[in-house]
């Protein structure tokens, strides 16, 4: 029997205290991390897409048990971060079939001197719906420390969060979700890799990044070639624009949108090869540097 308080057959080298920095969360959260942040001015105004595109949905998430992917993050040509993602073996959580995913990241080099960021995120994702059932995060941002454990009740459109800031008292927050198909960072990656749409097709993805809800408009931009650390590969490009939501689930007009593009290999592995996120100071690029596959049970 699988117990939710321990990972599912995760590679031993990824179980050590680790890394999932805010900028690298961008890669796994489809542009919802702080790397894509543009500092708003006092009178910033946002014009969202109207009407919204159809809700993002796939028949099944793309899951590769035993898979390990590594990425580097660069800014202005300087490497400032490193991340790894590991996918466990299928198991059960209650009556649901799940897979555990663990992502770790950290700042390195000069970026670590400026601010130490270490982040560990784990999600238990429903293999049938692709939605998270439970997620945990342990993050260090400079001198600040945050622990968040989230239990998802998709059918009831709510979550139960338990937070601990700077090792203080545990706080509990109950939140209503805008709809029944809200993802976290890691489940977002699974459904994004499963999406295959003709060029020009639009879709909307709603996700939770830490304590913030986001609405992301996705556009299938078609196929192209990507040359990087994993060699030259054909890739499927997706462009995204993410808006932060207010507590009433409307778009926050004081926060500018965050834009990004992601290239996913157009082959059986569907590796997230590259992400480019735009900021007011230049582009942040996240590139896959290593990949170890496994046995696929996801979308075909």
Question: Can you walk through the features of this model?
Answer:
- It contains three helices and 16 strands.
- The protein is globular, with a radius of gyration of 18 Å.
- Residues 1-47 have low confidence and may be disordered.
- The protein has a 16-stranded mixed sheet that branches.
- It has one domain (12-292).
- The protein has helices at residues 22-28, 109-114, 185-194, and strands at residues 68-75, 78-87, 91-93, 96-107, 117-126, 132-141, 144-153, 158-165, 171-176, 182-183, 202-209, 212-228, 231-244, 258-265, 272-279, 282-292.
- The chain has 300 residues and is mainly beta.
Give a summary of the structure in a few sentences:
This protein is 8% helix and 48% strand. By secondary structure, it is mainly beta. Mean pLDDT is 80; it is low at 1-47.
Layout of secondary structure:
Elements: H1 22-28, E1 68-75, E2 78-87, E3 91-93, E4 96-107, H2 109-114, E5 117-126, E6 132-141, E7 144-153, E8 158-165, E9 171-176, E10 182-183, H3 185-194, E11 202-209, E12 212-228, E13 231-244, E14 258-265, E15 272-279, E16 282-292
Parallel strand pairs: 10-11
Antiparallel strand pairs: 1-2, 1-16, 2-4, 3-4, 4-5, 5-6, 6-7, 7-8, 8-9, 11-12, 12-13, 13-14, 14-15, 15-16
